[in-house]
Task: inverse folding
């Protein structure tokens, strides 16, 4: 029975190492994060940001499942899974950094738009105040727009 368990554990580790099982799914999860980030860069809406966070949650869940799987393996078989987990965690960190950068750019653009709108509004109000001052100084009755 121990021989069978050892054989099946080795077989499972081989599948994971070749990407036939967990690694392939994790790669798809990485691709989903990349796709969600690309969509967020194109349209920095709250819905796109939520899609990015959902994709990260799926990737985090997959990494956690792989960690649990690695802990069930013998130490000899664990090395391949640990290497795959480390690779995924490094890629996740890179993608998270990109996500934060994209969010900061989107926030900066939104702040710029808000300041532009405020500036335009203040400019119109100053023009109106200047017009009224000129009319009052010339003695003309102010015109109501």
Result:
């Amino acid at each position: 029975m121990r021989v069978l368990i050892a054989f099946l554990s080795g077989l499972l580790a081989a599948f994971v190492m070749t990407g036939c099982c967990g690694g392939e799914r994790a790669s798809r999860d990485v691709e989903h994060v990349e796709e969600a980030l690309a969509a967020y860069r194109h349209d920095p809406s709250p819905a796109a940001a939520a899609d990015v966070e959902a994709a990260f949650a799926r990737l985090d869940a997959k990494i956690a499942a792989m960690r649990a799987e690695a802990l069930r393996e013998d130490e000899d078989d664990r090395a391949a899974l640990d290497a795959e987990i480390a690779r995924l965690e490094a890629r996740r960190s890179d993608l998270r950094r990109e996500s934060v950068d994209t969010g900061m750019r989107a926030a900066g653009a939104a702040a710029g738009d808000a300041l532009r709108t405020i500036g335009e509004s203040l400019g119109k109000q100053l023009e109106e105040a200047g017009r009224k001052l000129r009319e009052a100084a010339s003695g003309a009755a102010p015109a109501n727009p």
Summary: Residues 34 and 62 are 16 Å apart (CA to CA). The radius of gyration is 29 Å.
